[in-house]
TrEMBL record, chain A:
It comes from the Bacteria. Keywords: Membrane, Transmembrane, Transmembrane helix. The lineage of its organism: Bacteria, Bacillati, Actinomycetota, Actinomycetes, Mycobacteriales. The keyword Transmembrane applies. This is Cobalt transporter. InterPro entries: CbtB_put.
UniProtKB/TrEMBL annotation, chain B:
The keyword Plastid does not apply. This is Cobalt transporter. The keyword Thylakoid does not apply. The chain crosses the membrane at residues 7-28, 72-95, 107-128, 148-169, 176-197, 235-253. It comes from the Bacteria. Keywords: Membrane, Transmembrane, Transmembrane helix. The lineage of its organism: Bacteria, Bacillati, Actinomycetota, Actinomycetes, Mycobacteriales. InterPro entries: CbtA_put.
């Protein structure tokens, strides 16, 4: 019994994010979008799809990493 | 708070990326070189059969690709993983920290990292193992990319669903069995997904001229070594990312404890 009371009264080891704040939501969304964009260019652009048409500079540059990071390639 | 933890994730990713690059440069690049050598041998053998000569133009030299390209590619991947990991941690901690404030966030981070490794690298690598250059067919690239991306996204979605299920069950059947149930649900889901997705078996066989072999098939040892090293590279990346993240999180926690005031310390808490 005393254990559970103690646990409830213990101060948090780390502050909680203010997840309700629009500011935090915006920050997290922006981070995810930016990361997704980088992930797309690293693993998928100029392979199966391409936003720059026939250019293959990004593909060729990170080509080896693309192979061993598991992305499908030639 | 969110910004500081995102920063921690990016920094942890950066450190993990550097370590993974050094490993890849030492162990994986020699395998890539062997695969590129085979590519040359094969195109030579094929030109003997067809009488046509085809020379691929390289935009970047092998030296640039295996050093700078590999370095930047690995770093970008690791930083992306670090940033997404931080976002996932913030969301999970916002939930868990509210429900049971006494939970140590460092354990939460380690558990989350284990789940992330399985969902992002472990399962996709198991279903579609990484291949060295010259293995995949150009014609199936679109299908292979689509399948790999689908599997990765479904795997992450299923892991989130399994975690939610485990939390929901933990009050009913206890923590251990809830985790077991979540794991079974995840494994069942990814197995069904993998079964529904197409298979690709494209390791090139020997070059034939009628019944005569004029060029060797792709060296099997290179495929085996490449895959082992690629998996080890991911294990290393996620391990370093987790250790650095937890260490930096510990620093933030200590600073917060100090800011909360010396009164706590004086009271002997
Ligand atoms: Zn390739």
């Amino acid at each position: 019994m005393s254990v559970s009371i103690q646990a409830a009264e213990q101060p948090r080891a780390l502050a909680l994010p203010t997840a309700s704040a629009a500011d935090a939501a915006l920050w997290l969304t922006a981070t995810v979008l930016l990361a997704a964009l980088a992930y797309y260019f690293l693993g998928y652009d100029q392979g199966a799809v391409s936003v720059f048409g026939s250019d293959t500079h990004v593909h060729e540059f990170v080509h080896d990493a693309r192979h061993f990071l598991g992305f499908p390639c030639h | 708070m969110e910004r500081r933890i995102t920063g921690i994730g990016v920094l942890a990713g950066l450190v993990a990326g550097i370590v993974a690059f050094v490993y890849a440069r030492i162990f994986i690049e020699p395998q890539v070189a062997l695969a590129v050598d085979y590519e040359g041998v094969r195109s030579h053998a094929e030109s003997l059969v067809t009488g046509e000569h085809e020379h691929g133009h390289e935009i970047f030299s092998r030296g640039v690709q295996e050093n700078l390209g590999t370095g930047i590619g690995t770093l970008v991947f690791a930083v992306v993983m670090g940033a997404l990991f931080a976002v996932a941690f913030i969301v999970v901690w916002a939930f868990l920290g509210r429900r049971s404030p006494s939970t140590d966030p460092r354990f939460v981070a380690v558990g989350l990292a284990a789940c992330a490794f399985v969902a992002v690298s472990g399962v996709p690598f198991f279903v579609y193992p990484p291949n060295p250059p010259a293995v995949g067919e150009e014609a199936t690239l679109g299908a292979r990319s689509g399948s790999y991306l689908t599997l990765t996204l479904v795997s992450i979605g299923l892991m989130v669903a399994a975690a939610v299920l485990a939390f929901w069950l933990s009050e009913r059947i206890g923590g251990l069995w809830a985790v077991v149930a979540g794991a079974i649900a995840y494994l069942f889901g990814v197995t069904v997904t993998a079964t529904l997705l197409p298979d690709f078996a494209e390791i090139p066989g020997p070059v034939m001229d009628g019944d005569r072999i004029v060029g060797p098939g792709f060296p099997g040892q290179v495929v085996a070594d490449f895959r082992i090293y690629a998996v080890a590279d991911q294990v290393l990346l996620w391990t370093v990312l987790t250790v650095v993240f937890v260490a930096l999180l510990h620093r933030v926690m200590r600073r917060e404890a100090r800011q909360r005031g010396p009164s706590l310390v004086e009271a002997g808490i």
